[in-house]
Specification:
This protein has about 120 residues and is mainly alpha-helical. It is built from six helices and three strands; from the N terminus they run αααβααββα.
Length: about 120
Amino acid sequence: MEKMNPVEMCDMSEVHEALIEKINRSLPDEDDIYDLAELFKIFGDSSRIRILCVLSVSEVCVCDLAAVLNMTQSAVSHQLRILKANRLIKGRREGKQVFYSLDDEHVRSIIAAGMEHLKEED
């Protein structure tokens, strides 16, 4: 297990009132903060992240997702339902197949920003 470094604390206690006012004016309301936290929980599952990474490359059907990810179609479908309910992906029917893709460029940006952050050197 990785050892955590202690967080440094101020040597004195001084509240910067003007800064606090500015921050309070710009903070999202509590409902939006809650919704954002719920959205980020969706990204907390590696299977869903793997699906989003595949969909960031190409639109694919459930059969292809299952093959690429070495998962059952049932397991993939379960994760797709969660992603779709949270508007991270969308489906398009073509005959007897349904093809999935990222809902919009915001999802691609979230994945790309996360990967970029992980690859940064200290």
